Each structure stands twice: as structure tokens, then as C-alpha cells.
Amino acid sequence: MTKFHRGYRITMKDIKKEGASILRKRLNPVSMPVSEETKTELECMLTYLKNSQDPEMARKYKLRPGSGLSANQVGINKRMFAALYQTEKGETIELKLINPKLLSHSANTIYLPEGEGCLSVNREIHGHVPRYERIKVQAFDIEGEKRTYTFKGYSAILVQHEMDHLDGIMFFDRIDKERIFLNLQ
After folding, report:
1. Three-class SS of residue 81?
2. Total domains present in the chain
3. Catalytic positions, please?
4. What are the angstrom distances between the C-alpha of 134 and each of 78, 131, 159, 172, 173?
5. In a domain, 180, yes or no
6. What average pLDDT score do residues 115-123 get?
């Protein structure tokens, strides 16, 4: 039984912090068909992201802004995550991916110049996190339909960050301690 229900508002008190054992656990696959409970959990996760990106809501509920949220970050042992981001063209993309699998990736790697952050990490961590520039992912959508997605640039970084969470990997695990700042050009 989950505490998340329609209308439940995830806040920072629900976010598991660095050191929580569930953040280091490989999460269990979601069984098909997708249950109403799972759909509701994903909707609540996406709503958190929407609220966190709305300056008024973020201030009112003291939310840290986020563009991705994996199930284990809110204490749920299921291989799924929600993401919300803007494309270069200003289009808003909402993702609710279940049981994602990496099908292929580019040889090229990229990184966020300012480094990555995480809602579960309450400290600044310096360093570049190398990520594949392009990825192809197969996942189930919230209705249980198997789909293939292609991501590049920022969206590829975001999806790889969230998929790492599903395997108990934190972004800072991928920073090369010998070469904290990379020059991939």
C-alpha cells in the first residue's frame, strides 16, 4: 500500500536523502499491466516536478526545482521515473517511463558544464559527469504500451541520470576522481 493518492502533494519531506538505503538499491521491475497505484504514484511524481518548476508553488511549498524524479527518491521500489523539461525549441516534455532499458548509445559523451545536481543530495558536488550524447531507450508508458524513445543532449543526460537511480547509482559515482573536470572537445 502506498501513501500516494490522487491529490497527494509530494514535498521535500518525501524526498529520500543521500545515505538512504533505497537510493543504493537496484529497483524491482513494475509488473504489467500497470496498476492504478503505480499510475497514481507516477502522476504524483510528475506533479512534484511541475510544482517545483513553478516559482510561486516552489516558494509556497519550499520545493527544490527538479527536472527528474525516480521512484526510489520517494521511497518506492519500482523501476520508473518521471521527467519534465523544455526542448531547445521551448516545447515542454513530460515523461513517465516504466521499466526503461538502454537499447543503444552514441560513442560521443557530453556533460553539463556546471555539473549535475540531485534532489536527494543536499550538498554541492563539483565535477563533470560523462554521459552518452545520444541514447535510445525502450520503456513502457503509463498505459503499459511498450515504446522506443530517442534522446540527445540535455534530455539524454537527464534520462541517464534517472535510469542510474533505478540501479542504485548516484551521479557523483560517475565523476572521475582523478579528472574531476573534463574537456571532451
Report:
1. strand
2. 1
3. 162
4. 25, 9, 10, 20, 21
5. no
6. 95
